Amino acid sequence: MELIMKNMFQALGKSRTANRLAKKYGLRFGAARFVAGETIHQSIEAVRGLNQDGRIATLDHLGEFVFSEEEALESAAMCIQTLDAIASSGVKSNLSLKMTSLGLDISRDLCVNNMKRILDCARQHGNFVRIDMEDYTHCQISLDIYRELRQEYDNVGIVIQAYLFRTIQDIDDLHALGANLRLVKGAYKESPQVAFPEKSAVDENYKKIIQKHLLNGHYTAIASHDEAIIHFTKEFVRSNLISIDQFEFQMLYGICEDLQKQLVKEGYRVRIYVPYGVDWFGYFMRRLAERPANVWFVLKNMFK
Q1: Which of 2, 72, 78, 270 has its CA 20 to 30 Å from the CA of residue 227?
Q2: Catalytic residue among 55, 130, 150, 182
Q3: Is 154 a catalytic residue?
Q4: What is the DSSP string of 60-94?
């Protein structure tokens, strides 16, 4: 049943019709727990609340379904407005983005030009931009563009997914760049030809890439709510005398808040991924697909 529900939510997340309906009816049925609102102002206030108890953030203006150059330019403009709002408000937050929202599926040049405009703005504000990794079909081109951008910018990082077979090699290939990486397990449905189908194999590969990137001496964001992974990381950095300034834990807005706060109390840097915007549906469906507990939260909310 869990697998059926996961597949259903992943399919819904890619549905244009479902996304249009979600835009029309807004953040209902529990989505507001995981999405900080539809406007920049709402998202900034959410980050301000996180900052008050020691958590920092990365803001993401949601938008994966871009079908025209005009929409891609609008999405890039929203990223720039977000960076401006972070700077003017004084909140502690980076920016995360998906390159499909900047026109990657329309034109590589369009996407790269939008990325450069955003990175120029971020550099002006002394801020940092993280490129979110998407499904496997976008993996290679995302890494290629990242390498191109690193020739000119040092305020950009990218995400690496532990469930892909190729990941260890990608970590090795990015070593020479001194890449700032967010390491995740992976949230997309992928073929067993390119990704580990068993959770245990994903977990073991996740531990391997955490070890490898930290020992390479590069900044590492460990993005997980898995307490076993978090404990493993704590023990590994302690036994290898790795500075607390070389890594951070990252978690999603609205999930495992007690754990987030506990890590802050223990002295770790904790960054919360804070999504906002009207194109929230695909993101919300992936959160439901990841954890059955999220589904029960939504069902209870519907019947309140």
Answers
A1: 2
A2: 182
A3: no
A4: EE------SHHHHHHHHHHHHHHHHHHHHHT--EE
- Tell me if 138 sits within 8 A of 190, measured CB to CB: no
What's 189's DSSP letter? -
At 242, list the tokens: 């790795």
Residue 301 confidence class, pLDDT cut points 50, 70, 90: very low
What is the pTM (predicted TM-score) of this model? 0.86
Q: How far apart (Å, rounded) are the C-alpha atoms in residues 246 and 129? A: 17
Question: Which amino acid, 1?
Answer: M
C-alpha–C-alpha distance, residues 162 and 51, integer Å: 29
Q: Which among 302, 218, 295, 233 has a CA at the least distance from the CA of 270?
A: 233
pLDDT in tens, 119-157: 999 999 999 999 999 999 999 999 999 999 999 999 999
* Residues written for the chain: 304
| pLDDT tens digit sequence for 33-52 | 788 888 999 999 999 999 99
Annotated active-site residue in 55, 60, 105, 132? 132
Per the annotation, the verdict on 258 as an active-site residue is: no
- Cβ neighbors of 65 (< 8 A, separation 6 or more) are 16, 19, 279, 282
Query: Is 230 within 8 Å of 249 (Cβ atoms)?
Result: yes
CA dist., res. 92 & res. 51, Å (int): 7
The H or E element containing residue 267 is none
